[in-house]
Amino acid sequence: MSDTTLTTREEILALMHEMENRPLHVQHVSRLALQLFDGLAPLHGLGERERLMLEAAGHLHDIGHQFDHLGTGHHKESARLIRERPWKSFGQLEVEIIAQVARYHRKSMPELDHPEFRALSDWDRRIVQQLSALLRLADALDRSHVQLVQGVQVEVRPNQIVLHLDAVEPVSREVKSALIKGDLAVAIFQRDLLFMINDEEITPTS
């Protein structure tokens, strides 16, 4: 790991600790998102810099919760706070991508009628879509905020993405949430999602 990467992570963690009330959740979500990134590398083809931007968005996606009283949505407030930070380790475009990935971790998917997303190049829109898809899944897999899903391994099949979960308790709630928030991953990677524990498919209860 380079000194530059260490400095960047220190800057990410400084903002997280300054504004995040539930650091265990966002740190865990970031770890899961990076496991998904690594496992899906054959499909997205992104590199270390994009991986670092996903790590930043994972740690910072919930910092907007302190502005819940405004009613604007914490995902949008997280994006605002990321944009307003005087970053030293990320350039302006990278900051915008991180902000948008954090913004799209919940609610609507990236759409061209969103001005900030429309302003990006086709390539950068693709990065936002792919990283957001991973963060949405990772956040859903810690739906209960108690780290029931301790890890995830990815198996890429021709028509499926199989997520093998390392879980300590029944995780029906997490899988149900991931099936919903996996909408972007299904659209971007053109594969259905399948969740398994010990080679058995998990079917969430209603």
**Sheet with the most strands: spatial strand order:** 1-2-3-4
Major β-sheet, in short? 4 strands, mixed
Strand proportion? 5-15%
- Going by CATH, the architecture of the domain at 3-144 would be Orthogonal Bundle
Count of DSSP strands: 4
**Separation, N- and C-terminal Cα atoms:** 44 Å
Count of helical regions: 10
**Shape estimate:** globular
Question: What is the CATH class name of the domain at 3-144?
Answer: Mainly Alpha
Alpha-beta classification: alpha+beta
At CATH level 3, the topology of the domain at 3-144 is Hypothetical protein af1432
Q: Could you state the order of secondary-structure elements as H and E? A: HHHHHHHHEEHHEE
Uncertain segments are: none
* CATH H-level superfamily of the domain at 3-144: Hypothetical protein af1432
Mean pLDDT over the full residue set? 92
CA gyration radius, whole angstroms: 16 Å
Range of helix content? 55-70%
Layout of SSEs?
Elements: H1 3-19, H2 23-39, H3 41-44, H4 48-60, H5 74-84, H6 92-103, H7 115-118, H8 122-140, E1 149-156, E2 160-167, H9 172-181, H10 183-189, E3 192-197, E4 200-201
Helix pairs in contact: 1-4, 2-4, 2-8, 4-6, 4-8, 5-6, 6-8, 8-9, 8-10
Structural summary, described in words:
The structure is a single chain. The protein has 206 residues and is of the alpha+beta class. It has a domain at 3-144: Orthogonal Bundle (Hypothetical protein af1432), CATH 1.10.3210.10. Helix content is 55%, strand content 12%. It contains ten helices and four strands, in the order ααααααααββααββ. It has helices at residues 3-19, 23-39, 41-44, 48-60, 74-84, 92-103, 115-118, 122-140, 172-181, 183-189; strands spanning 149-156, 160-167, 192-197, 200-201. The N and C termini lie far apart (44 Å). The mean pLDDT is 92.
